[in-house]
Amino acid sequence: MPDQDERDGRQPRGIGVDAVSMFDFAPRRLGTMPDGATTLPKGDPALCRRSFEGAFARHEPRTRPNQAVALNALLLGFFGGEELLSLPEFVAAHDRLARQRAGRIERYPRPDPDPRAYEMAGMFAGQCVRLRLVAIAGTEAGLPRFRLLDREMQFVVRDRRAVRVRGLTRAEKDRRDRLDRQARDAATPEIGRLINELVRLDRDGVVPASWHAAGFLPEDLVSRGIAEAAAFIVGHHQTATFERAKVADWLACLASSVRQASRAPPVRGRGAPEADDLVSDVDALMAIARTKGAGSV
Asked: Which domain of life is it from (predicted)?
C-alpha cells in the first residue's frame, strides 16, 4: 500500500516537467508580450483533470517507513474544519500547504488552473485514498469530492515505523488481536520471573507510583507490597489486554526495577539467578514483542 510523498524521477503524464517531490514547485519561464511584460498563461481544465487522474492512479513505491504518519498529519492540516472538499478545493488546499512547506518565493506566476498543482494533489489524494484516510464521496459538477474519514490520527510511529491504530479492517483487527495475545502469553512467565527476583532482592519492596503513572497497574496497588500483590501483578497484563507495545514497555520497566534493586543485593542463596541473566532474557523477549506487529505499512 503506497504511502510516499516523494517522486521517483518519472516523467508525469500530460506535463513536460520533472516532478522532484509532491511539494516541489520550481519556477517556469512564461511567455512575454512584445513590450516585455510577463503574461499569465491560462490553464487548461481538461489537462488539469488528466494530470490529476494520472497521478492519482499511479502507485508510487514507499521510501520511508513512517510515510503514512506524515501523510495523515498533512491531510488533517489542510482539511481544517471541513469534512467534504470538491476537487478544486482539494487541489487549492494542497497547493497552499505545498507553498508553505516549500518556503520558496516564485519568480513567475503559474497558470490558473495549474496542471502541476493538480498532478501533485492527485498523487497525494491517491496515496490518502489507498491508506483509507479519505474516500471519494460522489461528484460535484462532474468532478470528484473527497471526504475525510477520521479527524483523529489513524497512524502513529512505533519503533520508527508507521502503525495503523484507527480505521482497521476486520482482518487487520483480528491479526492485531492475535499478535497482541501471543505477546501477552509469551510475557507472562518473564513477568513472573522478574517479580520473583524483585521480591528476592527486597522482601519488603512496594509497588512504586511510577508503575501506575505509566499505566501498567491500577492506583490501588501503589504502596502495597510487591510480594503481597505478586499474583495480581503477574496476570494484570492479561486481564487488561495490553497491546504488544505496552507489553514490551512493561517488561522494560520491570527489568529496570530489577537492575536498580540489584545494586545493593542481599546475600544470594545457592542457585539464585543473577539479575543480569534475567534482564538479558527480557531484552530478547522485548525485541520480539516490539518487532512482531500488525498494522505496519
From this structure: Bacteria
